[in-house]
């Protein structure tokens, strides 16, 4: 390692997902089921609101906490969902920015952060960046959030429990009963509870539940990246106890500064744009993949997000299977990027019907070969 590079950077690797993206850019007409972003475009009315803001000269820094109309609209929504709770909100530079600020605000060196395995790739890296210790709770084979396992993982050094439902990479939704139990455990033991709800609108069965409903100290991260296909616009938001939000804002002042102002005006317009038809379409895509692949792969049907996390066939493991798939033009993500196990792989069904059909045909062929 170069002598100028900080030691903390050696505690985690670059995201393996980016390597697959780089590979995809070099391939001609791949079957690309790797990308974790919607395949529909940003609605025109959101684009127009953003263009209008740019033309109106709203191109400078916004307040660190975000433009007042967007904050007020989100806060009104939060207060309607959680009446009586003392919650504040700020606009982050994407949900990734919100995650980083959450960790920097609450995790001290040596503190332990509990989350389930499989996990979103950023979780262990961000914990280690703060000097914290990731504590991964195995959820194979059904990827259920098990309150008993979470409680068993708690030690005197536990600072935070991190929940992601619907989850990436599995798409599995934690039950209301299990989330409520974890919320109570966190409250009883005075442990921070962080709920990553970026896929909250991609919810296909039943009604969405947030642990903030039962634990008013829950810090919630959400945003517009996935729900409105605004992944490149970097507009997320965080709500939670005012003291925590104030601390996150203090760090944002010296790091991200603010979310891009024109994109915030677009996000304000997005709050009035329903994309339910798109979410219903993703439910149909989910059903298609599960019906076609279940006879050939061991898998859990996802209740949300837009991912499927099947077990690789045979004994070679997930990474070897993905390498074989990529050699035949199918881009998927090895499960070991999201897990301490190398047994599964991730499919994104945020793709056209034609692309999904090609992917299904190739996956069935690979399962039989």
TrEMBL record:
EC code(s) of this entry: 2.6.1.-
Domain of life where this protein originates: Bacteria
Keywords: Aminotransferase, Pyridoxal phosphate, Transferase
A GO molecular-function annotation: pyridoxal phosphate binding
Cofactor: pyridoxal 5'-phosphate
PROSITE patterns in the cross-refs: AA_TRANSFER_CLASS_1
GO BP term, pick one: amino acid metabolic process
Matching Pfam families: Aminotran_1_2
Root EC class: transferase
Domain Aminotransferase class I/classII large: 29-363
Family the entry assigns: Belongs to the class-I pyridoxal-phosphate-dependent aminotransferase family.
Protein name as annotated: Aminotransferase
Organism for this UniProt entry: Neorhodopirellula pilleata
Lineage: Bacteria, Pseudomonadati, Planctomycetota, Planctomycetia, Pirellulales
């Amino acid at each position: 390692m170069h002598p100028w590079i900080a030691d903390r950077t050696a505690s985690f690797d670059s995201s393996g997902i980016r390597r697959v993206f780089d590979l995809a850019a070099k391939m001609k007409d791949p079957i690309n089921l790797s990308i974790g972003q919607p395949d529909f475009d940003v609605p025109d009315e959101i684009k127009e609101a953003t263009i209008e803001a740019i033309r109106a000269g709203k191109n400078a820094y916004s307040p660190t906490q975000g433009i007042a109309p967007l904050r007020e609209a989100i806060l009104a929504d939060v207060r309607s969902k959680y009446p009586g709770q003392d919650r504040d909100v700020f606009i982050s530079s994407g949900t990734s920015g919100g995650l980083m600020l959450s960790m920097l605000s609450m995790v001290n060196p040596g503190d332990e952060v509990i989350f389930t395995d499989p996990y979103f790739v950023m979780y262990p890296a961000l914990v280690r960046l703060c000097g914290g210790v990731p504590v991964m709770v195995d959820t194979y084979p059904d990827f259920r959030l098990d309150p008993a396992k979470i409680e068993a993982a708690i030690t005197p050094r536990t600072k935070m429990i991190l929940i992601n439902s619907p989850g990436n990479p599995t798409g599995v939704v934690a039950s209301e009963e299990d989330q409520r139990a974890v919320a109570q455990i966190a409250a009883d033991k005075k442990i921070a509870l962080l709920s990553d709800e970026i896929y909250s609108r991609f919810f296909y069965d039943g009604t969405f539940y947030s642990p903030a409903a039962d634990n008013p100290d829950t810090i919630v991260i959400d945003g517009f990246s996935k729900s409105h296909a605004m992944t490149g616009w970097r507009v997320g938001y965080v709500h939670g106890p005012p003291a925590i939000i104030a601390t996150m804002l203090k760090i944002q002042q010296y790091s991200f500064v603010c979310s891009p102002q024109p994109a915030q005006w677009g996000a304000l317009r997005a709050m009035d744009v329903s994309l339910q038809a798109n979410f219903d379409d993703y439910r149909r895509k989910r059903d298609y993949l599960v019906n076609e692949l279940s006879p050939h792969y061991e898998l859990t049907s996802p209740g949300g997000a837009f991912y499927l996390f099947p077990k690789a066939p045979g004994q070679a493991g997930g990474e070897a299977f993905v390498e074989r798939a990529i050699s035949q033009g199918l881009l998927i993500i090895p499960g070991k990027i999201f897990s301490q196990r190398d047994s599964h792989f991730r499919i994104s069904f945020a793709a056209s019907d034609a692309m999904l059909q090609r992917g299904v045909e190739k996956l069935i062929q690979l399962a039989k070969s």
